Amino acid sequence: MEQPLITVETSRHDDVLLVRVAGEVDLDTVPQVRAVLRGPAVAVVLDLGGVTFFGSAGIKLLVDARREFGALAVVATARAVLHPLQVTGLARHLPLCRSSDAALDHVRRMSRQAG
């Protein structure tokens, strides 16, 4: 049986939407991530800890998410994600966290400061 190119799981933590992504984030798979981001959320955590490939469509996804959500944090620990973020300079403009718990804490603080 063939493995899917991407898996996307969501969970709610109060007003925060946690989206866990594993596999390849590219032009063919990014619509699956965008689909779960269409729901109502005050804050979003994108956990990309399981991502093995992160293409330009993933970069665009993060730029759009940064514009759309007042509070956003990204879990990025693998070179497959960190390298493109650093090369494009996007790493300087996103809160990058080492764990989902740290990212959840970060967006909660951002939400409290904004409110």
UniProtKB/TrEMBL annotation:
<dbReference type="InterPro" id="IPR036513">
    <property type="entry name" value="STAS_dom_sf"/>
</dbReference>
<dbReference type="InterPro" id="IPR002645">
    <property type="entry name" value="STAS_dom"/>
</dbReference>
<dbReference type="GO" id="GO:0043856">
    <property type="term" value="F:anti-sigma factor antagonist activity"/>
</dbReference>
<dbReference type="InterPro" id="IPR003658">
    <property type="entry name" value="Anti-sigma_ant"/>
</dbReference>
<dbReference type="Pfam" id="PF01740">
    <property type="entry name" value="STAS"/>
</dbReference>
<feature type="domain" description="STAS">
    <location>
        <begin position="6"/>
        <end position="107"/>
    </location>
</feature>
<comment type="similarity">
    <text>Belongs to the anti-sigma-factor antagonist family.</text>
</comment>
<protein>
    <recommendedName>
        <fullName>Anti-sigma factor antagonist</fullName>
    </recommendedName>
</protein>
